[in-house]
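Support reply, case 0932

Customer input (verbatim):
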Amino acid sequence: MSRLGDLIRLERTRQGLTHKQVARKCGVSDKYLMEVEAGTRIIADDQARRILKTMGLKQHNESDFTLDDIAATVDLQSAMPSLAKAVEKSPAQPLSQRPKAVAESADSGGSIWLDALSGVLKHVPIYNAVMKEVGHRLLPITNGKIEGASPDKVYYFMAPDNDLRGFRVQKGDLLLVVPAQAAVDGAIMLLQTPQGKLLRKVKRVNDYQAMLQKYDDAFESEIKNYNELTFVGRCVRLEADLT
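Our regenerated output:
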């Protein structure tokens, strides 16, 4: 399925336009447009942008989503049920004839298709070692959660050093963190220490102690009592730059 085709169909449906109406405005055949939406014809990014721009879709909006983010991250088919409900509540009419609340929503950049996407996409922040936000990733939301956690509670932590290089985590890699206040045996976990955030692989020793492991040039470990440790989260995903 073409994600750009999905995006074109979402915006066309939001505006209540037919294939023929959009095709006429964009200078393409309605058959071409139907094939693009169905995913049976490949469309170049610049052509998709031209069609979307002709329909009035802005590349950026108040929620800071971009067409590149959306097309590269999520299968927009998942947003269609929410979109259909929104369109039912706001049938296609000239903006001047719509109820005030609907008109303001459409004019503000918070279009109906974006409202639908807000339930399937989340801007997940990236934090460095001092918990300063340095970027974000767009992740899909499944059944209201990301990796089993509330979307508002997950974030990426940028590895500050090579302490876990032997565990395939190098400086600058991104680890997706979900909340966890107890040790998870065998997991890479984020801990809060007096010196700041710390990444370590954790092995449970017994009901009272855990082994914190690091592996740069050589393997090292230390055993700590649980009452000495403050676990912040469990790392469930690693993103590394191969360049």
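We compared this against your earlier run and they match. Two observations from our side: The chain has eight helices and nine strands. Residues 59-64, 89-112 have pLDDT under 50 and may be disordered. Please reopen the case if you see a mismatch on your end.
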